[in-house]
Write a structure and sequence with these properties.
Elements: H1 3-30, H2 32-35, H3 42-46, E1 49-53, H4 58-69, E2 73-78, H5 81-95, E3 99-103, H6 112-119, E4 124-129, E5 133-134, H7 148-177, E6 180-185, H8 198-218, E7 223-228, H9 250-258, E8 266-267, H10 271-282, H11 285-289, H12 291-304, E9 313-314
Parallel strand pairs: 1-2, 1-4, 2-3, 4-6, 6-7, 7-8
Antiparallel strand pairs: 5-9
Helix pairs in contact: 4-5, 4-9, 7-8
């Protein structure tokens, strides 16, 4: 065997191994219940209670119902008591589990002492940090955002500060018991630098990095900490887009994402959203950065999404 034959054989072996590994990685995305099975008692073994922020509708509400269906009592937190009371009654009627209502506006500065008092002495096994907001319903350049100073403070309080404070409140109990799970809702837009969603996307990058670093710190304590980064889910934040292959219903997405809970410190939560994330990362950034793309995105939202005159949306 001459030198070049050896080089070609070695190259072929490397390529075969590379694509073999890719195939294995793709198989765990297709079959999460095979690769990362969750025992029937998994969630109740974490603790008696789950806490879900932004739980009056959308993804947060779906998480509250899914965890109650797994046998957990749930604390649902949002800013509108009437909506929370309705969700609490639905959870009790459909699952038989208890639902405790806590009213809090996470855009404000001084809500966490009250929340900590409400959660004191509770055996909290799961925390879902879901609450979040965008600056403007219609994507816009940073300086074009209405009421910029006020909106900036609200978004940082809601998307960044709340995440860290809720972990500070619930994590010590999990550490003491040596078990627990924290699910932090990020966004697919954190996968790329996306103009017109500048501050929102940056806040979700914080969610990713905070979650991944926190998992490294507390994994050995028996705690799962994961960032979940969906793309389009049919909620108020996305103007209730019609569901389909790429746009998932909240309950569909949540049930899928929970299957990936043991898959690592970050997941897109579904097969289709994982594929979208991979594709997004292959697109040259200059396409996103082009003025033409930005204009087309703004026009698309204005023309196709009802209710896009709203300035802010909280999920």
């Amino acid at each position: 065997m001459d030198f070049w034959e050896l080089v070609l054989i070695s190259l072929g072996a490397v390529v075969s191994v590379y694509f073999g590994v890719k195939l294995i990685l793709f198989s765990w995305i297709l079959f999460p219940t095979v690769w990362f099975p969750l025992p029937k008692s998994f969630f109740t073994s974490m603790g008696e209670w789950a806490v879900v922020t932004g739980a009056s509708e959308g993804i947060g509400k779906a998480y509250a119902f899914a965890l109650a269906a797994q046998g957990m009592n749930v604390v649902i937190i949002s800013r509108t008591k009437a909506n929370l009371d309705k969700v609490a009654k639905e959870i009790g009627d459909t699952t038989g589990r208890r639902a405790k209502v806590v009213v809090a506006d996470f855009t404000k500065e001084d809500v966490f002492d009250q929340i900590e008092d409400e959660l004191k002495e509770m055996n909290i096994g799961v925390l879902v940090n879901n609450v979040g907001m965008i600056m403007n319903a219609i994507p816009c350049k940073f300086l074009e955002c209405s009421n910029l100073d006020q909106t900036l403070n609200k978004l940082i309080n809601c998307n960044v500060k709340t995440l860290a404070k809720m972990c500070k409140i619930t994590l010590p109990g999990m550490v003491n018991r040596g078990r627990g799970a924290i699910i932090n809702i990020s966004s697919g837009v954190a996968s790329a630098r996306v103009p017109l969603y500048t501050l929102y996307a940056a806040s979700k990058v914080f969610v990713d990095r905070f979650s991944q670093a926190l998992q490294a710190e507390y994994k050995e304590k028996g705690i799962i900490i994961q960032a979940v980064a969906p793309f389009s889910v049919s909620t108020r934040m996305t103007f209730y887009q019609p569901t389909g292959t790429l746009v998932l219903a909240p309950d569909e997405f949540v049930n899928s994402s929970l299957q990936y809970l043991r898959s690592g410190d970050k997941t897109y939560g579904s097969i289709t959203h994982t594929l979208v994330g991979w594709i997004l990362q292959t697109i040259p950034e200059r396409i996103f950065f082009s003025e033409c793309m930005q204009n087309n995105l703004q026009n698309y939202v204005k023309e196709t999404l009802p209710g896009s005159d709203q300035t802010q949306t909280i999920q």
